[in-house]
Amino acid sequence: MRQITRALVWGRSFDRAQAFAERMSGSSPIQIEAVEQGEVAAAQADIICTVTAADTPILFGDWVRPGTHVNIVGSSYVGPCEIDTDLVVRSRYFADNRASVEAAGAEYIGARDSGLITNIHILGECGDVIIGRVDGRISTHDITVYKSLGHIIQDLAALKYLVDR
């Protein structure tokens, strides 16, 4: 597990990103700060989470350094793409559910339909990595991407956590 000590927040509206960072800083043990450019945040990140309603990529492969892990959770149907094709192609790519990503993972479908990858580019599902059936990272330089379209078990686990608190 990586020790997280700092979080950078970027949004299409810097004012809203800054307000979010300030609001979250009061309840978090880690340093949270807003940055004005996504490229600046990505260049410094070990872990990147995209949680947007963007129609076009907001994260580009040439911004992401080797060894970074990326969670793509904002787009959940064919059309909107949060990351560019280059990042899909360069990554070790994992899904919450393979069939769902093959059918509705816009970033993945774009790269596949362009002939840049095939269906074997999805190396496994998150559960495969957790139980050790598939290696998530085989080199410290690997860029890993996890595409989540939403899985009811994730929502239920989060709800249970909140109820137990």
Automatic annotation (TrEMBL):
Top-level taxonomy: Bacteria, Pseudomonadati, Pseudomonadota, Alphaproteobacteria, Caulobacterales
Source organism of this protein record: Phenylobacterium montanum
PANTHER family tied to this protein: KETIMINE REDUCTASE MU-CRYSTALLIN
Protein name: Ornithine cyclodeaminase
A Pfam family of this chain: OCD_Mu_crystall
GO annotation, cellular component aspect: cytoplasm
Domain of life: Bacteria
